[in-house]
Fold this sequence. Notes:
By secondary structure, this protein is α/β, with parallel strands linked by helices. The strands form 3 sheets. The chain has a 6-stranded mixed β-sheet with strand order 6-5-4-3-2-13. Helices cover about 45% and strands about 15% of the residues. The chain has 2 domains: about 1-210 and about 475-495, no CATH class; about 215-470, Carbon-nitrogen hydrolase (Nitrilase/N-carbamoyl-D-aminoacid amidohydrolase, 4-Layer Sandwich), CATH 3.60.110. The chain is globular. α7 (about 160-180) crosses α14 and α7 runs parallel beside α16 (about 475-495). The longest helix is centred in the first third of the chain and has 29 residues, at about 80-110. β10 (about 430) and β11 (about 435-440) form a beta hairpin.
Amino acid sequence: MRLQAAARLVAAFAVGAALNLAFAPFGWWPVGLLAPAALFALIRGLPPRRAAGAGFAFGAGLFAFGTYWLYVCLHDFGLVPIWLTLILQVALVALMAAYPALLCFLANRFWLKPGMTREWLVLPALWVLAEWLRGWVLSGFPWLSLGYSLVGTPLGGWAPLLGVYGVSWAAAMACVALTVACGWKMPMARRARAVAVLGVLFVLPLAASRHAWTNPVGPGIPIAIVQGAVSQDQKWQRGNRQATLDRYAMLTDRAWGARLIVWPETALPVLAGNIGDYLSDLAARGRAHDVDIALGLVNYEPKSARYYNGLLMLNSAGQTWYYKRHLVPFGEYFPVPSFVRSWLRLMSLPYDDISPGGAHQPALDAAGQKIGVTICFEDAFGSAQLRTLRQATLLVNVTNNAWYGDSTAPHQHLQISRMRALEAGRYLIRAANDGISAVIDPKGAITAELPQFTQGVLRADVQPMSGLTPYARFGNYPVIALALALLGLAGWRRRQGV
C-alpha cells in the first residue's frame, strides 16, 4: 500500500509537470484536457487526505516546472542570493500547490462516491473556484490558469462569454467527459452522454462567435511598436544610459508615419524627472509628425516622495500618465517589516517600494482613441480592466520580459495577453523590451510580432472597437455564480442521498 501511495504521488507530480506542455511556447493544448482528467482519475475513491496529497503533488509539478523562470528573474538579474531565491521559489510552489490539494480534499471529503454528482457538478466547480481564489488571495497569482492554454482552440471561444475562468470550467467539464467516455466498465448510455457533452462544449462557443459582440468604430489606425532589446543586466548600468536613450530615439525616427508609437515598460533607465529636455524634444518631434507616443518610465513625485511605474502619453494635449495599479510582491514592493528592509539594504538588494496607482484611472487619449492601459503583470488580472473597457477602443500592454531571459515566461505572458484581447473583443498592442512585441486581434490571434532579442520597429494597422462582450459587461460573476450553484445542487443531491 505504501508503494502504491508513493507511485500515485509520483504519477500526480508527473501529470502536473506534463500540463505545462499545454501552455506556450509548446502549445500542445490536448494535454490541457488529458492532464486534469488523469488527476481526476488518480483521486477517484481515495480517502480525503490521500486525495489532497495527490492534488498537492499535481500542483507542485505544474508550478515547479511552470515557474522555474523565477530563478532567472530573482537570482540571475535581481542578484538575490541563491539560498533566498530557492526559499522564495519553494514557498511560491507550495502555496500554489495548496489550491489543487484543497480541491481534491473537498471533492473526496464530501463527495467521495463516484457518480454523476461528483463528476459533472463538483469537480468542474471546484476547479474554477480554486483558480479564481488563486487569482486574488494574497495579491493573486493567476499564472497557468487552465483556460490560458486553450486560446486559439474551440474551447477558447468561451472567453468572450465567461472569461478565462469560463474557459477553465469548460475544459474541466471536457476532462470529466473524457474520463467517463474512456472509463472502464462504463455503461454505454453514460459514455454516449459524455460524448454529447463534449460536442456541446466545443460547438456552442463556435456558434456564439458568429455574434458580433463588438463593432468597428471609425477607420483603422497605423501604429508602431519600438522594441529596444536592451538586456536587463546591461540596462541600468550608468555607462549604457545614453546609448539606450539614443537607441530609442533612433528607432522612433524609423517609426514616423504611424499615428501611435508605443515603447515598452521602463524603456529608459532613468527617472522621468531627470530627462525633461529629452521628453520635450520627443514630444515636439511627435507633434511635427502628427503622432502620439506612449513610453514606459519610472516617475518620482517629490511632494509625496513616491515612485510609480508608469506609462507616459505624449500628445498634442501635453503629458498624461497611467500608473501601474497591481504591483508584483517582492519585485516592486516588499511586504515586510522595517527590520527586514534594513537587512535588505545591508545585502545591497532593492528595498524602495513602487507605489500603486489609483484603482480607477481613466483610459488615456491618443490617436483620437481611448486607450486602456496595463503594465506587465497586471494584464493577468482580467477583471481589473472591466471598468476601462467601457471607455477603451484599443488596449495597450507594455512589459519588460527581459527579466526572464530566454525562458518560457515571455511566451506564457503573450498567451495571457491573447486571452485579454479575446475577452474584450478589442485589438491589443503589446510592447515588450526584448520581446515578444505583438499586435493581437479581437479573436486573440497574433497578426504581427517581433521575435525576442531583436531590435526593431513593428508596424501594423489596428481597428478601434466599441461595444462590450458578455464577459466585459458582467465580469467573473456569472461563472463564479455558476460554480457555486453547481456546488449547491451537489450538496442538495448529497443530502437527498442521490
